[in-house]
Design a protein that fits this description.
Oligomer: heterodimer
Order of helices and strands of chain A: EEEEEEEEEEE
Number of strands of chain A: 11
Distance between the termini of chain B: 40 Å
Number of helices of chain A: 0
Number of helices of chain B: 0
Structural class of chain A: mainly beta
Largest interface: A-B, 27 and 28 residues
Radius of gyration of chain B: 14 Å
Radius of gyration of chain A: 13 Å
Structural class of chain B: mainly beta
Order of helices and strands of chain B: EEEEEEEEEEE
Strand content of chain B: over 45%
Strand order of the largest sheet of chain B: 2-11-10-5-6
Helix content of chain B: under 10%
Number of strands of chain B: 11
Distance between the termini of chain A: 35 Å
Helix content of chain A: under 10%
Shape of chain B: globular
Shape of chain A: globular
Largest sheet of chain B: 5 strands, mixed
Chain lengths: 114, 114
Amino acid sequence: DGGITQSPKYLFRKEGQNVTLSCEQNLNHDAMYWYRQDPGQGLRLIYYSQIVNDFQKGDIAEGYSVSREKKESFPLTVTSAQKNPTAFYLCASMGSGSYTGELFFGEGSRLTVL
Amino acid sequence: AQKVTQAQTEISVVEKEDVTLDCVYETRDTTYYLFWYKQPPSGELVFLIRRNSFDEQNEISGRYSWNFQKSTSSFNFTITASQVVDSAVYFCAPPQGGSEKLVFGKGTKLTVNP
């Protein structure tokens, strides 16, 4: 079935370590997004990509990095520079040139820093 | 960037009550689409509805209805005869009109008590 797969679902990390969250989609969508969700904060945009090999910073990009080497993949790295990385991370995609289309979301990855 | 404001952070109702979730949006586009998403406790956001800016007729789908008023930039969502299963966080998504950056609001957490 078509959709977005995020992994891992739960992740624990020690302070000072980098960690990479995977996001894969088989919907043939051009646009992909990473959001962070904290209790009471809603969804905050980290990075987004409209096309392969191109991406832009969202509102809270500091301490994060992404790559978009393949259309179907948009991994997010949470670096040690991120001051408060414990959060729920959601990846989403949207059809190309189709701003009429809805966002498809993955099930999310919950990162906890010990 | 396209933005939305959901002023209600949390709403608590008793089962069978009607409840309206407010959404005010900002956009520079003249043509755009609006969306609502539901986030149940499992975490994955689920698409509920899409409306285009040309159509201001109210839409009803079962117990759900949406009131779109372009003049006031509002796209409100009403649940009639609420049920416990409606308990979730509801997000009004930023208007999509060709802009790339989609900035969500904080969402409204709805709790329906038996």
